[in-house]
Every structure is written in structure tokens, then in C-alpha cells.
Amino acid sequence: MKPRNKIQREVVALSATLRPITDEQKMWGILHSYTAKEISQQKKLYRYFVISSRLKDWQVCRFFQIRKVKQNFHIIEPVRLWFNEKVHMELEAMSRCWCSGHADSWNTNSELSLKEVPSWHKDYTQILPISASKVTSMLPILKRNGLKRSFHNMQPRDVIEGLLKNNIFETLWKCKQFPLLRAFAYNWNRDYNDVSKMAAVKIVLRHNYHIKDGRMWVDMVNMLERAHKDFRNPKFVCPISLEAGHDKAMDLCNKYEEKQRKIKEQKELLEDQKAVKAYEVARKCFIGMVISDGTVVIQVLPTVKDVEQEGKAMHHCVFTNKYYKRLDSLLLTAKVNDERVETIEVYLKRYQLVQSRGVCNQNSEYHDEIVNLVNENMNVIRKFNQVV
Questions:
Q1: CA 258 to CA 276: how far, in whole Å?
Q2: First CA to last CA across the chain, in angstroms?
Q3: Residues 119 and 147 placed together within one structural domain of the fold
Q4: Distance CA 98, CA 59 (A)
Q5: Same domain, 151 and 196
Q6: What is the DSSP secondary structure assignment for residue 324, as one 8-state letter?
Q7: What is the DSSP annotation of 177-230?
Q8: Could you say which of 144, 165, 186 is where a domain stops?
Q9: Which domain holds residue 161?
Q10: Sign of dihedral through CA atoms 119, 124, 129, 135?
Q11: pTM of the entire structure?
């Protein structure tokens, strides 16, 4: 992309003055990006390291990819990020191979050029795995806000934008709560002002409690929130052992959710008991009703227990879906030789047959006969429904 404005032309001009990486810097990147065991292995291993410096009114972050093939190390510079003190960012990068599903499939034959920032799910300015970083010089405002010699395994863009735009980030950075910042940065929206956690974070800072595993601490606080525990209690958010505190929070969360489950079950049971009683009162007037043509016998299901037995015997959902709560629906059973053949639902507001279902919701051989019998005797159903 060609530069379109004064700022982009300035960045391109400054970029042309940057010197290639030195052998000393290459060796530093290799030694800080691989363990001794990885260096001795024959595997292909890709790593990234960042070297950042001030260039006039810009902070430039240079990303270097190390391609280790057996014992050979090849280093390319695929990305440069430029920031000014107004938090304006410009991106220079190599072209990428779009046929690959990887965000960092660089075309090594291409040159660095200005690029639009990709969509968030492929935004390599925030997802490249950084193994090491070095800051050799910095803008005065970044130095004032706490940036020193490293990005501490965080994305340079997260750190620079955080230090320049976010007071919470700046405070946590100056307090060296790097694991916690990395945990907050794990979410794609980088929300460092999560209100539900700020009360706990303030307690952590007030008690000078250093968090060693940010993800575990955030999980612990999330479980305390679910358990409705007090975030302002240092006993919970500043445990002597983070692992033990995490396990305790998980236990409290499980107990709370189990208690809520029992309360919900008791509430549902009470509601069901009321529904059972209401159903049986509403169906008393139909107990003596028998509709028959000599072969098929149709009667009401007078209790919820009868509805349950009907559902189990017929292998359908008349009980599971709580049809007994629909007092406007009359549930009937059709039998032949005292054997269940279909279950019937009649809508009492319109005295209309809604459905008649056999075993596993299939029509029985008597289906048409049952439907005609119900429709022909709808006046009988109406008379029994009017009995007080």
C-alpha cells in the first residue's frame, strides 16, 4: 500500500533509515527464544522476538521471526509497528500467503510495506507468539508511564496502547503485575477495566500481593463471583497459596451452585404439586365419561400419575413435556381390549381435536376410528365439562 498522507510518508521515510539487525542482536534473540534443549533438537521450530526503539517522535517495534531448521537459524523481519504519543499506529509488514490458514504465513520474497490492520481474528499485530523482547530506547511519555527494557512477553501493541490510554493498565504495569496483565490481555477485547474484577484488583494492590499466575487468579475471582463472595475480602483474593485459594473458590462455587440447584428443584416441585392438584380438580367432572363404539373405549386421564403411566407405556412426551399443566387441554386415553392404543388431546376452548398419538408418536391401526369417534362425541365432552 502506498503512503496516503503526511504521517504515512514520514513512517516510510524513517523506515528506510533503519539498519539491519546485527549478529549480536540475532544471537541474543536466538538464546532468549529457545531453551538449550530446543537448540540441540533437530525439529523445525519457529519463534518471534521483538526489538523496540525510539526514532524521532515514533516508537518502532521490529518483529523478527527465527526459523530453526535442524541446527540452522534463519531470521527475517516480517512486521514493524509504529506508534506516536497520540497512540496512532502504522503497520508495515511482508505480504502473506492467503492460501494458508496461518496468520503468519509470510511471503519471504516480498518487501515490508504499509498495510491495513487485519480483522481481529487474524490480527497478527496482537497474536504473534513473542518469546523475547528488548527495548533499547523509548518515547519520554512511555518512560514516564513505566516502560523500561522489556515488554515482559506481552504483545508490544498491548503494552504501548495500555500505557498510553489506560490508567488501570499503567498502574498494574508499574506494580509489576505482569502475569495479571497477560491474563487480561488473553481475551480478544483486551478489557482491562472489567468492573467486576476491579474491586479485587484494588485489594491486591493495597496489600502488595504479587500474582504469579494471572489466569489462575482470574479463574479464582470468576468462581468467587459466581459463589457471591465478597471481593473486598483479602482472605479470598490474596491467598497465601494461589493453588489452594483457587481450589477453595472452586469448592465454594460448587457448593453455592448445588444449593441453588436444590432451591430450584424445590421450587419446581412446589410448582408441580400445585399443578398436580389443579389438574386433578379440573378433571373431576370427566371421571365418569366413557366414549365407545364397542371396540375402542376412550376415557379421561384423571390424575397426573395416570398421565405419567400413559407417557411411559406409549413412549411419548405427554408427561415429560408437562401437558398436565395445560388445563385447556383435555388428555384422554383410547384402549382396545383394555390395551392402550393412542393418547388424545382435545382443546377445550374450541372443543377441537389437537392430536391423537400411538406408541412412539406413530398412528395405530385404529387411528382413523379414534379420530372420528372423538369428533362425533364432542358434544358429550362439552356436557361433562359444564358439570359443576
A1: 26
A2: 85
A3: yes
A4: 29
A5: no
A6: G
A7: -HHHHHHHHTSTT--TT-HHHHHHHHHHHHTTPPPS-HHHHHHHHHHHHHTT--
A8: 165
A9: 1-165
A10: negative
A11: 0.70
> For the chain, what is the domain count?
3
Cell of 308: 405419567
Q: What is the pLDDT along the chain (388 residues), one digit of tens a residue?
A: 888 899 999 999 999 999 999 999 999 999 999 998 888 888 888 999 999 999 999 999 999 999 988 888 999 999 999 999 999 999 999 998 876 667 788 988 899 999 998 877 678 888 888 999 999 999 999 999 999 999 998 999 999 999 999 998 999 999 999 999 998 887 656 667 676 788 899 999 999 999 999 999 999 999 999 999 988 899 999 999 999 999 999 999 999 999 999 998 888 877 889 999 999 999 999 999 999 999 999 999 999 999 999 999 999 999 989 899 999 999 999 999 999 999 999 999 999 999 999 999 999 999 999 999 999 999 999 999 876 4
CA–CA separation, 337 and 339 (whole Å)? 5
Residues 157, 21 share a domain? yes
CA 371, 377, 380, 386 torsion: positive or negative?
positive
Instruction: Judge if 23 and 132 occupy the same domain.
Output: yes
Per the document, the length of the chain is 388
Instruction: Pick the last residue of a domain from 280, 313, 330.
Output: 280
* 352 and 224 together in one domain: no
Q: In terms of domains, do 191 and 337 share one?
A: no
